[in-house]
Amino acid sequence: MSDFREEKFDHEAATLVPDSGSSASSPAVPAFQTPSSGSAEGFNPSEAATMLEGTPPPLSPITHQNPPPGQALGPSSPVSPTGTFGSLLLQPGTIIGNRYRLVQILGEGGMGAVYKARDIELDRVIALKVIRPELASNPEILQRFKQELILARQVTDRNVIRIFDLGEADGIKYITMEYLEGETLYQILRRHGKVPVQEAVDIMRQTLSGLQAAHREGVIHRDLKPGNIMRDASGRVAVMDFGLARSLEGDGMTRTGTMMGTMEYMSPEQAHAKDLDARSDIFTVGLIFYELLTGKMPYAAESAVASLMKRTHERAVPVSSHDAAIPRPLTSIVAKCLESDPKLRYQSTAEVLRDIDNWQENGAASTLRFPDIRPWASDIPWPLIGMITAVLVLAVTGFLFRNKLLGPKTGATPAPVSVLVADFQNKTSDPLFDDTLEPMFNVALEGASFINAYNRGTARLAAAKLPNPTGKLDENAARLVAVNEGVAAIVTGSLSSRGSGYTLSVKAIDAVTGKTLANADANTANKDELLLAVPKLAVPIREALGDTTPESVQLEKAAGAFSTSSLAAVHQYGIAMEQLWAGNSEEALRSFSNAIALDSNFARAYGGTASAYGNLGKTQDAEKYVKLAMEHVDRMTERERYRVRGLYYYATSNYPKCIEEYGELVKRFPADNVAWINIAACYSGLRRIPEAVDAAKRAVEITPKGAVQRIILSFYSSYNGDFIVGEREARTALKLNLSSQAYLALAEAQLGLGQMSQAIETYHKLEKTDALGASVAASGLADIASYEGRYADAVGILDKGVATDLATKNADNAAEKLAGISHLQVLRGQRAPAIGAATKALSISQSVPVRVLAAQTLLEAGEVATAQKLADGLASEVQPETRAYAEIIRGDLALQRGQKNEAIKMFTDANQLLDTWIGRFELGRAYLEAGLFVEADSEFDRCMKRRGEALEIFQDNVPMFAYFPPLYYNQGRVREGLKSPGFAEAYRTYLGIRGKASEDPLVVDIRRRLGQ
User: Which helix (DSSP H) or strand (DSSP E) does residue 576 occupy?
Assistant: First the structure.
């Protein structure tokens, strides 16, 4: 199947882009016990105690190993003091402190994770919040954790979540609290958009009651938001998560200079880090009240920072302007809560409650006296609003970036800096210069190891989301984009005619302050000399950014970057790059072809062609053009040579060399975002997922607002079992860019979290994006049906998907779906349809996943000779991954023949070639068949810990999580063979997933084993 993650091949952004120990016989378990071949908004579990929305956990390596489900955390299973709960969260069934059995994960935030748990001693359901071990060693963080207990226990009100106790067990610090089954206001808003007036009033009345109790004890919340206000089925509303709360009589931590809280719901005084009191919470109440009534936020802006600035000086549009049915007195109540000056605001929650009561008692018309509420925009002209807002945003952000562009200390390596090259003004009226000079300048700037040229395609997408959307990256738009995206500087320029010659002027601008950092001009006698002028003009700009490389060396290294005698070829290349960034790979291929036709020695055009083919999933063509590019290696910059060689190794699946090549690149060019993304991809190809996560984090650190970087981190975090981070990063990516890849990443994270209904909703959103998205969504929906044992439903979904794929000429996707259907038919006992589907799949595509899945099906259906032939073909290929799959198929054949020791050897050989999840699962099955229960238990434990890798067995954007449930069945048989009482729990877990399935023989066998 064509790789969904187009970014892997972005050339300019260069992103790559039967139990022998049991007396009863067992049903045959197919080797790959699952079919499938081939991303709901909002955190929405049916039950939750808290949602740590907006407080992302730290992006740190994962070292903590959890005990198996049901095993207590005790001396035999210590928690590493340096570990985190990021990737391997505590498993359901884990017992903490010999008292609390974890039931399910509810949410995770910066401080730790929250679980639904059962208090074994008191036999009641509670919520248990665990602090991250690496934070528990920080005295300040620990004090804040204790503070939540101390402060919240002072507040006793039915509208505040009750805190029970603070405890510690084997290095884990935790808080136990009341468990409230319901949903957050965040979930309610995401589902309904807004709520009826009376419902909104009831919610806010109870919220205010809870806050009133807190304020009465001298406690302000400081981080109130829809995500930490819950409502249960009876209508009870409760405020929770006092993690940022401070006592008004406390230690001064609310003093000027400390800005804490969630930006979208901060009061103006919080934005300025001023002293806070109860009136700050009241402002936030107004924001939430406004959102409940209208479904909108009152200070909409292009970013959270811009919205924060607006509320410091702008009056909100009245709620009644959105809906005339909202009573005017209620409009006035909300408006008074939202006064930017605390002195004009309600002075206490009691005052707000009094006015709400007066209105509901029909006395509001005579008792409420408010001035006319007009939006701030009605008083000041819009152009001036825009100008003031821009100045404020730039001024505030300027503080954050005030040291970004300062020259480095003598002898120090400059810190990495991102630069956005804006659209140059073409004053010549000659279209040849449109999109021509900018990519040349990108290359010239990146000759400095510390400079990262910000992707112009990403910048164009961001410009389209500005208050005044634009498709152009002129100086103003580029500067606003740079500020929003955290880019330090922009480079802009203009080209004008001068008789028969030209004048090219460029300047670098500090994005925040607008200060000109450097400028330069060049006069040329003709068009062709412009190719030589660009590297020279880049010299003073690089120096202003901190480059100390002598000019002569800069120019020498730049030689060859655009070595072409044809400016027209550069022009076609520039057009192709714009098309590639916009996702139009087919059009980009034509433009790259035009560039090559104009200059057959143009190395960068070959590299771009390889990128476009990679985006289209045509890896053989991509490999061909990478080789053609390498024929012109002497016409590349040093950075590009590393990139193209790395891309070649990735395309040919030589992942160790890929990591080596890109590793050298980041040593020389540490700010290269491309390298870190591709290093992550290559580590993933080797199934070294934790290292892939670390590399993806580095890419995010360099470009924190890059949607591609967030998507990559989401996928690899989920593969690593860190589904909470996977979901968070996917949602962040969707906010930045509603892409198909982000929806898939979100759906897979939701699968890992057990949120099946949400994943289904996300897949339905994915199928509406484009043809490829619809194809992947069909595979995903079939995967969920198969995961739940609904094999007939899965066949129906895939059947329709095959027809659609063939109609849209997506042969590889159609073939993988047919291979999935064949496997499903084997599970259903339908031998002839299974063989037919497998045969048809092989006639359409010879991709590795199709051959592997078809071989498994044919083996189970009795077509041994054909399966053996497919295995031999896979074994003859060069790539270790392909040869590993060949050994797995041969191992399954040996198992079928009763050659258990031979099967163990083959599966072991497969895992030495490439340590895959499915290889470990098959090795565990072989040990089980041989009666080697301890060895089998070890392999199945590995599979359990590596469950994230089961999301995509082949890592080809085909969801395959239906392979995971049989692990519980096999684990149960192993534990049964070991005579461990825990076997029943594994069986019951399987029944919890597929117990309602009518076509699954394993369900029948489990019920027999359990005496049901």
Answer: helix 567-581
124-131, strands of its sheet edge to edge: 95-96, 100-108, 112-119, 124-131, 172-178, 163-169
Alpha-carbon span 489 to 209, nearest angstrom:
49
Which pLDDT tens digit goes with each residue over 809-835?
888 889 999 999 999 999 999 999 999
Domain boundaries, the chain: 49-179, 194-294+296-387, 413-644, 965-1012
Residue 465 is inside which H or E element, if any? none
Query: Roughly how many angstroms between the first and final C-alpha of the chain, as a whole number?
Result: 43
- For the range 801-804, what are the long-range contacts, defined as Cβ-Cβ under 8 Å and sequence gap of 24 or more? 801/38, 801/775, 804/771, 804/774, 804/775, 804/778
CB of 99 within 8 A of CB of 123? no
CATH architecture label of 194-294+296-387: Orthogonal Bundle (1.10)
Backbone angles phi, psi at 184, to 5 degrees: -80, 160
Q: Which long-range contacts (CB under 8 A, 24 or more apart) does 989-997 make?
A: 989/69, 990/965, 990/966, 993/787, 993/788, 993/789, 993/965, 993/968, 994/788, 994/789, 994/965, 996/788, 996/789, 997/788, 997/789, 997/790, 997/791
Structural tokens at position 864: 């041994």
In angstroms, what CA-CA distances link 989 with 19, 92, 755? 19, 10, 16
Query: Quick one: tokens of 950?
Result: 């089961």
Q: Which two tokens stand for residue 729?
A: 């990063």
* pLDDT tens sequence across 986-1003: 899 999 999 998 889 999
* This prediction's pTM: 0.58
Among the listed residues 696, 627, 702, the one whose alpha carbon sits nearest the alpha carbon of residue 669: 702
Which helix (H) or strand (E) is 434 found in, with range?
Answer: none
The torsion region of residue 193 among left (phi > 0), alpha (psi -120 to 50) and beta comes to left
C-alpha 1004 chain-centroid distance: 39
Reduced to 3 states, what is the DSSP secondary structure of residue 104?
strand
Q: Domain 413-644 falls in which CATH fold?
A: Rossmann fold (3.40.50)
Q: What is the DSSP letter of 437?
A: H
